[in-house]
Amino acid sequence: MSGTLYLCATPIGNLEDITLRVLRLLREVDIIAAEDTRHTRKLLNHFEITTPLTSYHDHNRRVKGGHLLSLLQSGKDIALVTDAGMPAISDPGADIVQLCHASGISVTCAPGASAQSAALALSGFGGGRFCFEGFLPRETKPRRERIAALAGETRTSIFYEAPHRLHETVTELAAQLDPGRGIAVISELTKLYEKAVVGPLAVVADEMTQLVPRGEFVIIIDGAREEDLRAAERADFENMTIAEHVAFYTSAGLDQKAAMKAAARDRGVAKSVIYKDMHK
Description:
Blueprint: E1 4-8, H1 20-28, E2 31-34, H2 37-46, E3 53-55, H3 61-73, E4 78-81, H4 93-103, E5 106-110, H5 115-123, E6 130-135, H6 140-148, E7 156-161, H7 166-176, E8 182-187, E9 195-200, H8 201-208, E10 217-221, H9 226-234, H10 242-250, H11 256-267, H12 271-278
Parallel strand pairs: 1-4, 1-5, 2-3, 2-4, 6-7
Antiparallel strand pairs: 7-10, 8-9, 8-10
Helix pairs in contact: 3-4, 7-8, 10-11, 11-12
């Protein structure tokens, strides 16, 4: 009989966020396949688990996948783990799962902590309808195209972002989306210095410029409201006075500073132009 591949969720920060079932499986399987063996070794040492460990990551998945499959076919049980959260979500674990399904190998899941669901709950935006976008493209053009597509997205959107790209991402979001859209930027989930900055996009974007990013970030963007999309379509900014343009956004809930910035974006002028006109 062949073995079983167990997809085991690991903590996303706090080591206590691991299930009893996952701890048992990590002790009972024949081998643990990990994205980063150094990272996983710390987890295993913390819980005094001595199961043999091997690497399975993006750079060796083609060769190692076949090796792991042969072990499973010989009757070995394998636990697959990623650095944090559930394997096979935005990592190469999906490849070995597909190999197992194609070969008739049993695959089961031992769920646990999830950064996307934890961040969504913290945002307060609700989870009735949402989409997980993973990491945005690194290249400028596809990145901007992906962000532009969010303008009409009525579902809540969830992204992961690295600290060195946070400022760039939030700046691009503020430049292309409705400045009144709700956004939550959440870092250090479940850790001692967990932080959630939540508010209108224009306000949060300004706050992010003062932040020195550390750790991994989850960005939650509230879905566009149907009535706001219709109102924006009806708004004839070109025939509005600057004061009327700013009032359009303050009536939507933005403060004066954020509203002037939004009007400047719509008109393609510097914010100082709007400021001077408003203070004549």
